Amino acid sequence: MMDYVPGLQLPVYSFVFTLRVVSPMEFPNFPGIAFRGAFGNTLKRLVCVLPREKKYCHDCAMVQTCVYARVFESPGNGAGRMRRATHYPHPFVITPSISYPATCKKGDRLQVLVTIFADGDKYFPYFLYTFQEMGKRGIGNARGKFDIEKVKLKDTGDTVFDAEDGFYMDAVRPVKSITENVTPQLKIEFVTPCKIKANGTFLKEAGFLEIMRTAARRYQNISELHGSGMVDIDRENILEMATAIEKVDENILWQATTRFSKRQQRTMPMEGFTGYAVYSGDFTPFVEVLRFAEFSNIGSNTAFGFGSIRLTFL
User: Which CATH number goes with the domain that contains 181?
Assistant: First the structure.
């Protein structure tokens, strides 16, 4: 066993929102779909200065400075490894703690993990205000309302917002480096559905190489698009070493649901595997990327809370 202190090269701000249910909330589908949709609609309503003139953000003169466009539409800069991409990764992840179907009664508490990359100190007040407005407007099939009881940093538990005392802006800071005891066995729990595509098909098993491939790519893409530049990792070497990792146990369940896209006016599949897998090998070269993946989620539909993972060295 060895001590290892991985340092993330991209600032990551991770917050746990504790919500108090004011009126019943219903989630017949994956709750992240309702939260992500409500967040986008509410944020745009709050900050967009040209809501009637511009239906889409890409041709708006303010696209590079507007908070909604930067956070929710994630416009590209036309350069770098993602210059040909049509969809860019968002600089945030919203992951509710409840599964579906679910009903929350008045007085219940539920937690939502909100992670913001790079400019979390700049954008967190917008997230907080948007969630407050979401709570007033209601969410889910029953348009259930909620109050924000408190918001804490995920890694330390420090309070950054309290319903009684208000907002502690000075407490907002990125995740600190995490001291690890890296052992030869690693358990990865796939908390929410992980949708990973390889060779044109979606994986229905948790192969370590493909997990590292999608995690490293996401780390590089988010840092290039939203940070000060692409993180310095040897991706090819990492993937080569990942082939030596063995899977020794696995318990995987495939889950499938759908959502309706108002933008595309069609039903979209939402699916992936949950469960866990246990791997054996030397994990020291992978810790930085895996820890980022634990905050950023992996695979497709991450902005909806898909692809949430939890790491445990055994």
Answer: 3.30.70.1900
First and final C-alpha spacing in the chain: 11
Q: How many CA atoms lie within 13 A of 243 on its CB side?
A: 5
Name residues whose C-beta falls within 8 Å of residue 71's C-beta, 6 or more positions apart in sequence.
Answer: 43, 90, 91, 92, 123, 126
Residue 127's closest CA among 36, 14, 43? 43
Q: 107 and 243: one domain?
A: no
- Could you tell me if 110 and 77 lie in one domain? yes
Domain of residue 137 covers 12-171
Q: Token pair 């989620």 is at which residue?
A: 297
Q: What is the pLDDT of residues 95-133, one digit of tens each?
A: 999 888 889 999 999 999 999 998 888 999 999 999 999
User: pLDDT (tens digit, 9 = 90+) per residue, 155-187?
Assistant: 889 999 999 988 998 999 998 766 678 899 999
Question: 309-313 and 197-198: which strand pairing?
Answer: unpaired
Q: Check whether residue 145 and residue 211 sit in a common domain.
A: no
For residue 253, name the pLDDT band (cuts at 50, 70, 90).
very high
Average pLDDT, the chain: 87
**Helix 208-226 crosses helix 287-296 at what angle (to 10 degrees)?**
70
Distance CA 273, CA 205 (A): 7
Residue with tokens 């009126």: 23
Residue 292: the pLDDT is 93
CA distances to 244, 247, 300 from 205, rounded to whole Å, are 17, 11, 15
One domain for residues 35 and 136: yes
